[in-house]
Amino acid sequence: MDRKLLKVLVAIALLLIGAWIYVYQTSQPGVVSLRFDTVVGEEPLALNETRYPNPGGAGLFRVRDFQFYLSNIVLHGKKKDYRVPDSYHLARFDNASGRYQLDLPGVPPDAYSAITFSIGIDDAANSSIASVGDLDPNSRMAWNWEVGYKFVLFEGALLDGDTVQPLVYHVGFSENRKILRFDLPESFAPGSPEPLSFTVDVMALFTGKVTIDMAALPNVKFDRADARSIAENYGEMVSLATTTGDAQ
Amino acid sequence: MNRSVALLMLCGLLLAAAAVGFLRYIEPRPTPLQGFTAPFVFGKFNVPADNPLTQEGVQLGRRLFYDKRLSGDNSVSCSTCHIQQLAFTDGKARAVGISGNPLAFNSMSLANLLWGAQRFFWDGRAATLEEQALIPIQGADEMAQDLNELIGELKADEAYPDLFRRAYGKISAENIARALASFERTLVSADSRYDQYLRGEVKLTAEEELGRKLFMAHPDVKVSLRGANCIDCHSQFLTSGFSTGFDGFSNNGLDTEEMLRPGLQLVTGQLADRGRLKAPTLRNIALTAPYMHDGRFTTLEQVLDHYNEGIRYSETLSPLIMEADNQPRDTISMRFSLNLNEEEKHAIIAFLHTLTDRRFITEEKFSNPFEAGD
User: Fold this and answer.
1) Which of B41, B112, B238 best probes binding to A when mutated, by most A CB atoms within 10 angstroms?
2) Which chain B residues contact residue A167 at CB under 8 A?
């Protein structure tokens, strides 16, 4: 056989293999990683450090624990919406990296334009004692089974002069689930090594829609109106860092 | 193909098959434990992949647990300090082992170890039950046994070599730990009156029900909800600490700053974890006096007095304890009280008594096999 023809054939074969690999890979489900970093205003949240000013009054506060439930993640695709199964995730930040990363495997290939998720959980899950996803009725996020789950847990202390005032914000109740939606960048695709990066502004809990004086309202638990104020605020605490996203 | 090559290949094949058969024979194939169940409300649990629950492992572990030869002078077994009738505690403020010197700590109940904080000891210094099991064996005050000596003793025994062979293969420190941990994982307490109530089989008395409600509520004066906030640290169904991360460790106000033990700080090195200790299960609590890590309280009345009016402040004191109050809180004072009344305190104690599980403390499978004679 003539050498030239052989070269051409080899080149065609390589091209075909390459194309096949490309098509195969882009048609395979991939991992979508979501990353959440906590900030207070502009700087990263430092746990257990008394350094943040009370937004509505005197004193400095520290955060000892901050965690919340993320749930019902949906990726809105061109072909189809992808609903993450058993989507109940406890976001917590008391680890070495100080961030929460969530890897969602098996996301089908599609052109996704937006993501929605909830802060808090749906009513059905909130009135159940089944351990689905990160839901656990024997965890610190559970009130007793007649009440349901805390959606957002914030514990710490406010220091003013010699007084140490405990801060306890345990906010739940099904009506306080907040559904957030963010537009995704064009470049977004399952399997991408870059996670979708969100920031969670802890200060927004107290400054979002309603400014809170921690000395006057050092705890929120079962009072519906108080819980609603904080929930309005946490509805605005998450933003998508990689693009401009709007909470709705 | 040449005939002799074919013959050679056939021989090779036969040899390989024989080898596999032989390996199968010496490699133990224990039977997965049958009928191991736990209530739905206890939730998920994890048995380590490298130590699955097997009949042989559990049976061996039970024997080891009750065998005094695990101690240096054959006088102390695990069951010396973990007595079934006392829900696997010992009734002493601080446990006493081979040396006769009281240990620094109160003996812990071994009920429902598969749930709750998955680190062991009051300060969480053991990461697994396997790791935990070898610590008292070698402790100078507990059992003062040299592991190699113990292995020698077990090898010389009539029964152990076969029991180990069937469960794990050989006698080793690792397999001793595996067997003890397996037995401990089967110690499930799930038939108290509270369990029967959860299953809908019995009703609680009015007093117990009041106690249950108080136990299960963080108080909120604003909505007139009275509560004792026990559930803030002792989970609703298990009554143990929480299993996620270090959530099952707290500072419940036993000591002032100066007197605080390091607790979890020993494990994490974090100042913020100083004085955080493991919130234990409260199941069978009426049987496990004295209470707390150093056995400082002899009665449940004293425990309730502590939570109600005895809280001592330190930097790491739980904010939930500081904040929980059934009266409008005077934010300036640094005194903390639940402000429960006597009737409410009694009701909580009545509820705590519903956590006693007679079946657990008489269950034959958990008892001393040397006395049962099997």
Assistant:
1) B41
2) 319, 323
Summarised one tens digit per residue, pLDDT across range A109-126 is 999 999 999 999 999 999
The yes-or-no verdict on residue B31 having pLDDT over 80 is yes
**In this complex, which of B43, B319, B322 lies closest to A138 when CB atoms are compared?**
B43
Q: Are A213 and A56 in contact (CB under 8 A)?
A: yes
- Structure token pair of residue A114: 């937006």
Q: How many interchain CB pairs under 8 A, A with B?
A: 89
Residue B256 is predicted with a pLDDT of 96
Q: B237 and A47: CB-CB below 8 Å?
A: no
Structural Rg of chain A based on CA atoms = 23
Provide the shortest C-alpha distance from residue A176 to chain B (in Å): 18
CA B108 – CA A203 distance, rounded (Å): 41
At B208 the three-state DSSP class reads helix
Q: Where are the alpha helices (DSSP H) in chain A?
A: 3-26, 123-126, 204-207, 224-234
Per DSSP, the three-state class of A5 is helix
Q: Nearest C-alpha of chain B: how many angstroms from A222?
A: 7
How many C-beta atoms surround the C-beta of residue A224 within 10 A? 11
This prediction has a pTM of: 0.91
The C-alpha of A80 sits at a distance from chain B's nearest C-alpha, in angstroms, of: 33
Cβ contact (<8 Å) for A144 and B216?
yes
Residue pLDDT, tens place only, A45-68: 999 999 999 999 999 999 999 999
Q: Which domains does chain B have, with CATH numbers?
A: 27-188 (1.10.760.10), 193-359 (1.10.760.10)
DSSP B31: P
* Token duo for residue B77: 């077994």
